[in-house]
Design a protein that fits this description.
178 residues; five-stranded antiparallel beta sheet; mainly beta; two-stranded antiparallel ribbon
Length: 178
């Protein structure tokens, strides 16, 4: 058994870390109190299916729902002059912007695929494929303006090039198997 090396601590030399220093207060905006993380999504639902219609025709679809994700929020300035390591959560009036408190809108997406297989004799075949992504053309957002100092744009969606958030798109394909 090892020897306790920190006063008031039950851990030993082989133990973990020293106890927290309670007599050294740190401003709330300089540390990260426990809260939900960036990207936290409380609910997600996905369902898909494939239907072999017959005569080489196949239809498949996917529905995706995701509740709003959490985003990092800030005042929009570095009032403490900390630089790149700062959180920017201290407002000019001395209050603190809550950490990761902005929740975006829910995402709904429907994707559809139709595939027709045409036999060409022997092992050869031709497949025509039509895919439609975001069939309902719903506006799904994956990025938001989260700097409170920019009041005119705070909370508004910003461009996100990720395919999960794009408007309706159609894709055609041909596949030759031999």
């Amino acid at each position: 058994m090892g020897i306790a090396i920190w006063p008031g601590c039950s851990e030993t030399e082989q133990g973990r870390t020293p106890p927290p220093i309670d007599d050294f207060p740190v401003a709330e905006d300089l540390y990260n109190p426990y809260t939900y993380s960036v990207g936290d999504q409380r609910h997600r639902f996905v369902v898909n299916g494939i239907w072999q219609v017959g005569r080489g025709l196949q239809m498949s679809g996917l529905y995706f729902y995701g509740s709003g994700q959490r985003y990092s929020t800030s005042w929009g300035g570095d009032l403490r002059g900390v630089g790149a390591g700062g959180t920017g959560r201290l407002r000019a009036n001395g209050t603190i912007v809550p950490r990761n408190n902005f929740v975006g809108e829910a995402i709904h997406r429907i994707d559809l695929r139709i595939q027709q297989r045409i036999p060409l004799g022997g092992r050869r075949s031709l497949e025509g494929i039509l895919e439609v992504f975001n069939l309902a053309n719903r506006e799904n957002f994956g990025s938001y303006a989260t700097a409170e100092s920019q009041a005119a744009t705070y909370g508004r969606p910003t461009r996100n090039a990720n395919v999960a958030y794009t408007p309706r798109s159609v894709q055609l394909g041909l596949r030759l198997a031999f």
